[in-house]
Write a structure and sequence with these properties.
Elements (H helix, E strand, L loop, with lengths): L3 H7 L5 E6 L5 E7 L2 H9 L7 H9 L2 E6 L3 H15 L6 E3 L6 E4 L8 E4 L8 E3 L5 H15 L19 H4 L13 H15 L4 H16 L3 H20 L1 E2 L7 E9 L2 E10 L2 E11 L6 H15 L6 E4 L6 H12 L4 E3 L5 H30 L1 H11 L6 E10 L2 E11 L2 E2 L5 E4 L8 H25 L15 E4 L3 H13 L6 E6 L5 E6 L2 E4 L5 H26 L15 H10 L3 H6 L2 H8 L3 H18 L1
Length: 625
């Protein structure tokens, strides 16, 4: 038993990270402290004012542990790593799986290349970015290669010079073929320097040069060449006009602001590189109900810059945050150069912060509308179905379907929807064990019996062992069972539930002659449902999903040849003849009962093969005689 009083006394007055665990030993919170003794004790001191979120978290703490570090900076790094690894329930989290593209110039090579990269390494190359659009980066790289005729191959030069013929790029005028020494290292390097100048935003000289070459080619009546220079000129001009000057100092900086609504916040970041705004991006922060803006900004800075490979010289923030000195020290170490965190009060930087905040607010407002639409098609649709069927509770729905080809290799599917959304982790597949022919009712009975028997057995075992949580989703029963069909399938389900002494509402999803959902079969009555309603659309999605999942499973078994038909064992029956037999005879039993002549005629196969098939199924009878 964890003794809080004793453990609190042992806390050192040193920097470190503390880790809170709940009764199931899950990590629910990770924090850092300049003094572990003061910080951790404050959580359990009644006089300390706590937010409702922290009050709830403290009530769940069953034990805590801590790791002592040599400095607050080390504690900050360790805290970030632990939060990223464990995703604790009560830490504010950055929802971000983005990796940002860079333009990489391999200046460490004798004949450098311009490349696309999502990683920034210490490899003697020069990196430009990060950019927010991968497509824009690829377009820029293509433009640079066309403009300065740089190589794109992976040949190792000068080692591979002359070993192979020049590639297609040379013949279409997009490479100067350094692989053949058609250009000297010095001349090639001049083109690379021009590309670097371009990436640094110096477009004027390049535009003047292209314009001059275009005019000269035109005067010499070399119109094809003039058109090529004109297109390059227009491309460079388009790129230059996209670059918005934001600051005259030419520094790299990120401008960060946020807006908050309930349990979500959106952080907007403007990326300024070389004094130019190259892009913007927004990020979602969750679990922020009781957090103010400075706290959210602090958590964002720590989590975002722990993961991004590029750290700018300056962070311009919307609000004053805590821990600025230690953050600056940490970011300086990551960048390899001095980093400043500033909160502007006036001037152009303050206006950019306001602009970033407005953008964050717009994203939140758009999300609010999106969330309303999403709720209408999920939770709202479930509410409509519950009202239609007069169900007091409707959260979890399970739907089942059977798939086969003329009774060969029956399979079943179970799909699960919770709050109107698919819960794919709870989907299940069934290979039918007891039914040989195309009997959908018998197949469905087996699937449902196995599903609910398994759930009852696991629940019983869980109760006997006094476990606090289920092994898997089988122990959770649905609030509504949806059958792909009408009265017949519903009756099969009711029979299974009655045998197992379970009380679960069962509803059939009835289709019309065109195989489209038309209504619900419930309590021996077909209930019409408004085709324009969200409830109807959800029922249709569930039915289609159950059907898709069953067919997909059946197809995967066939494609992987995991299913071996008895027909494969018959001499003279290959894939084509097996398919013909499966099309002609709905079940194995019907094939067994056919004569050799009937098999040959119906499946259109030679009589001697039909005789082999007949003999295969009747060899036991012949042995008995």
């Amino acid at each position: 038993m964890f003794n809080f009083e004793e453990e609190l006394k042992k806390l050192p007055a040193r920097p470190g990270v503390y880790i809170m665990h709940d009764a199931q030993d899950n990590i629910i919170y990770v924090g850092k402290a300049v003094s572990l003794k003061n910080r951790v004790r404050s959580y359990f001191r009644e006089s300390t004012v706590k937010s409702p979120k922290i009050e709830k978290m403290v009530s769940l703490i069953a034990r805590f542990e801590y790791i002592v570090t040599d400095s607050e900076l080390e504690a900050l790094v360790l805290e970030n790593n632990l939060i990223k690894e464990h995703n604790p329930k009560y830490n504010t989290m950055l929802k971000d799986d983005k990796t940002y593209p860079y333009i990489k110039v391999t200046v460490g090579e004798p004949f450098p290349r311009v490349q696309f990269s999502r990683l920034m390494k210490k490899d003697r190359s020069r990196y430009f970015g990060p950019f927010t659009s991968a497509a824009a980066v690829k377009d820029t790289i293509e433009l640079l290669n066309r403009l300065f005729q740089l190589r794109t191959c992976n040949r190792i030069l000068p080692r591979d010079i002359g070993l192979e013929r020049p590639c297609l790029n040379y013949h279409i005028g997009q490479c100067l073929a350094p692989c053949q020494e058609y250009i000297t290292k010095e001349e090639y390097r001049k083109n690379v320097d021009k590309a670097l100048s371009f990436l640094n935003g110096n477009y004027g000289m390049i535009l003047d040069e292209l314009k001059s070459k275009m005019e000269k080619a035109s005067e010499e009546l070399n119109f094809e060449e003039a058109i090529r220079y004109r297109d390059l000129y227009n491309s460079v001009r388009a790129v230059s006009q996209k670059q918005k000057i934001t600051d005259s100092d030419g520094e790299d900086k990120d401008i960060i602001a946020l807006d908050k609504d309930g349990g979500e916040a959106v952080v907007q970041v403007f990326f300024v590189r070389g004094g130019k705004l190259i892009g913007r991006e927004h990020f979602y922060m969750t679990r922020v109900e009781d957090c103010d803006k400075p706290q959210i900004l602090l958590d964002f800075v720590k989590q975002f810059y722990a993961g991004t490979p590029f750290v700018p010289r300056e962070l311009i923030l919307q609000k004053e945050i805590e821990e600025i000195p230690v953050l600056e020290e940490w970011l300086t170490a990551r960048r390899g150069g001095r980093v400043y965190i500033r909160v502007p009060k006036k001037g152009q930087k303050e206006k950019l912060v306001e602009l970033a905040e407005k953008n964050a607010r717009m994203v939140l407002e758009k999300d609010r509308e999106r969330i309303k639409r999403e709720e209408a098609r999920t939770v709202g649709a479930v509410r409509q179905i519950a009202q239609l069927l007069d169900l007091p509770v409707l959260d979890r729905m399970e739907a089942f379907d059977i798939s086969n080809i003329s009774g060969f290799e029956n399979v079943g599917s179970m799909v699960v929807y919770e709050k109107g959304k698919p819960k794919r982790s709870d989907y299940r597949k069934f290979r039918i064990r007891t039914v040989a022919g195309p009997d959908d009712y018998a197949c469905m009975k087996e699937v449902l019996t196995r599903r609910f028997t398994h759930g009852l057995e696991e629940a019983r075992e869980m109760e006997e062992k006094q476990l606090g949580k289920a092994f898997n989703s089988f122990t959770r029963f649905p609030d509504l069972l949806l059958m792909d069909g009408g009265r017949g399938q519903v009756n099969v389900a009711l029979q299974v539930l009655e045998e197992l002494k379970l009380s679960i509402p069962v509803c059939g999803m009835v289709k019309d002659d065109n195989h489209r959902t038309r209504g619900l079969y419930y309590h021996n009555v077909e209930i019409p449902i408004d085709r324009a309603s969200e409830g109807f659309k959800l029922i249709t999605r569930i039915q289609d999903e159950a059907h898709r999942f069953a067919i997909e499973y059946h197809r995967s078994l066939r494609s992987k040849e995991q299913v071996k038909s008895v027909l494969d064992e018959i001499p003279g029956v290959g894939p084509a003849r097996r398919k013909a037999l499966m099309r002609s005879f709905p079940s194995i039993d019907e094939l067994k009962n056919a004569t050799a002549a009937q098999i040959g005629e119906r499946a259109d196969i030679p009589l001697y093969v039909a005789q082999e098939i007949f003999d295969f199924f009747h060899k036991d009878e012949e042995a008995a005689l």
